[in-house]
Structure formats: structure tokens, C-alpha cells
Specification:
With about 300 residues, this protein is an alpha/beta fold. It has one domain (about 10-295): Protein of unknown function UPF0759 (TIM Barrel, Alpha-Beta Barrel). Helices cover about 40% and strands about 10% of the residues. The chain contains 11 helices and 8 strands. An 8-stranded parallel sheet has the order 3-2-1-8-7-6-5-4. It starts with 8 loop residues before the first strand and ends with a helix.
Length: about 300
């Protein structure tokens, strides 16, 4: 097997989390500097901020640009106003405004994610097709289905996947198996996350060139290790095929998400070192800034 030109982008669901002080970040770091510190370790971020807050201001984007290196990727979601309130119906002007603004990120713009509502099913796929047909080709796009009808391995799901392939759009792969692998047992973090995240089957398919994995971890790292094991070979395969997968790592309360992301990456690194002495771009993670500070005392 010859190694392709693919690489791995690794990130978390956010960059500003005060719970990461003392590990990912220095103990007393000003969170206004969190993106700059975050981008010294991770190569991408799953940008939920636009889902809740809508189109960012120009000055906000300029701040992001000044805080992240050129190799960094922001993978933002369409605002919920467009996906959940308007359900992709007659949103051309708002969509164009959002994409024009987010395009200011230039090379730092990763796949823009369209997270569909949980009840956005077969009867509404036509609205998604209208959006994809007019989607600017220079902006990568990914779609996350959540309606159970799009997971039934029948004609409907085949049609949905063919639609994504036609428009070179990636299917976001939500892997919540670790999260739902045990009852919450009065663990408040698990209880909240299990209520918030949809429990859907995992269908592993790459419909574009940048497959996105959203790995929703448990509070028990051994459980996470078990469910991540098959992803090692899949990520290895995609990269050697020349694809550029994105791996976004969550945990139930996200406190241990940075540690889990590093743990996952180290296992991918090991697989590549077994195959070749050369690691692809993205398969290397530095010591956390908060840990570096800890070694000084």
C-alpha cells in the first residue's frame, strides 16, 4: 500500500473551557487567549459558536485569524436559525451572508457542517438538495443526519448517501456508542449528555474527501479505548487513500476531552509507525501548555 497525501485534523468541540485550566491551559490563563493556546496543540476545532450565535462579526473573524496558524481549520456549523427554525426553507439570503462572512477565514476554513434536526427526514431531503446544489464549490461542506429514517439501510438512506456523493459532501459520523454504553447510574455528566445527544446507529461511510468523526466519549477511559479501537484502522485507511479526516473528540462533560483526544491520537500514531517511520501531518501532538508550566515548579 502506498501512502497518499492525506492528513488528520484533530480537535475538540470548543476552545474556551475554563475546566481545562491546569491541564490543557495554564492554571491562571486569561481565557481571552485560549484560542491561541489551543491552536498550539490542536489542528482544528468544531465550532459550535455559530450554531447558537449566528453569523460572526468581521472583527470576530479577524480575531480568530490572528490567533490561529495558517494550517489550523475552523469547522463551523450553520446557525440553528437556518437548520432548526427555518429547516433550510427559503434561506438563500441568510445562507449567502453566513458563507460570505465565514469565507473570510480563507485557508483556515474547514468543512462547514449542516446539522439537521432530529426529525428532518425523507420528506424534507429535497430542501437539503436545493441547498447543496447551490453550495459554493470552494467551501467544503458536511451534513449530519439525525432522523432515524436516514439510518435504516434502505432506499431512503441510499438516496441520502448518493445525494452527498453527488455534491461531494461529507457525511458527519456521530459515534455516541461510548456515551450510551452504560446507564448513567446517577452520574450527572453522563445523565445530561445522554439526554442531550441523539442515540443513533453508527454507519461508517465516506461520501467526500474529508470525513468527519464526532466521537462522544464516556467518563470511563477504558470504555472509550474499546470503542475507538476500530477507528484506528479506518483513519489509517482514509489517510493512506489521500483523504483528510477530521476527528472531533467530546466527553460527557468535556472536562477530559483534551486528554481523550491525545489518547486517541497516540493510538493512531502507533498504527502509522507500525506501517512507516513517517507520520502524516496532524499525527503529532505537543505537551499541553498547562503541563509544561507544571514542570517548572
Amino acid at each position: 500500500m502506498s501512502q497518499g497525501n492525506g492528513r488528520l485534523y484533530l480537535g475538540l468541540p470548543m476552545w474556551a473551557n475554563a475546566d481545562w485550566r491546569g491541564s490543557l491551559y495554564a492554571q491562571h490563563m486569561d481565557m481571552q487567549h485560549s484560542l491561541k493556546e489551543y491552536a498550539t496543540v490542536f489542528s482544528a476545532v468544531e465550532g459550535n459558536t455559530t450554531f447558537y450565535s449566528g453569523t460572526p462579526k468581521n472583527e470576530t473573524i479577524q480575531s480568530w485569524l490572528s490567533s490561529a496558524p495558517e494550517t489550523f481549520k475552523f469547522s463551523f456549523k450553520l446557525p440553528s436559525l437556518l437548520t432548526h427554525e427555518k429547516r433550510l426553507h427559503e434561506i438563500n439570503s441568510e445562507l449567502n451572508e453566513f458563507l460570505d462572512r465565514i469565507s473570510l477565514l480563507g485557508k483556515r476554513l474547514g468543512p462547514v457542517m449542516i446539522q439537521l434536526p432530529r426529525n428532518f427526514g425523507p420528506d424534507e431531503i429535497e430542501k437539503l438538495e436545493v441547498i447543496l446544489a447551490h453550495w459554493p464549490r470552494h467551501i467544503p461542506c458536511a451534513v449530519e443526519p439525525r432522523d432515524i429514517a436516514l439510518f435504516n439501510k434502505d432506499a431512503v438512506e441510499k438516496y441520502f448517501n448518493r445525494l452527498l456523493i453527488t455534491y461531494q459532501t461529507d457525511r458527519v459520523l456521530l459515534d455516541a456508542r461510548p456515551l450510551f454504553s452504560t446507564p448513567s447510574n446517577n452520574d450527572l455528566a453522563l445523565m445530561h449528555a445522554q439526554k442531550e445527544k441523539p442515540k443513533r446507529p453508527l454507519h461508517v461511510i465516506s461520501t467526500g474527501v474529508s470525513p468527519i468523526i464526532r466521537f462522544i466519549g464516556h467518563t470511563d477511559m477504558k470504555i472509550n479505548d474499546h470503542y475507538f479501537t476500530p477507528w484506528i484502522e479506518r483513519i489509517f485507511l482514509w489517510i493512506t487513500q489521500g483523504k483528510t479526516p477530521f476527528l472531533f473528540v467530546h466527553t460527557a462533560d468535556n472536562k477530559s476531552a483534551p486528554a481523550l483526544a491525545r489518547r486517541c491520537l497516540q493510538r493512531v500514531e502507533k498504527r502509522f509507525l507500525e506501517y512507516s517511520s513517517q507520520l502524516p501531518d496532524g499525527c503529532c501532538i505537543s505537551e499541553f501548555p498547562g503541563e509544561k508550566q507544571g514542570t517548572l515548579f
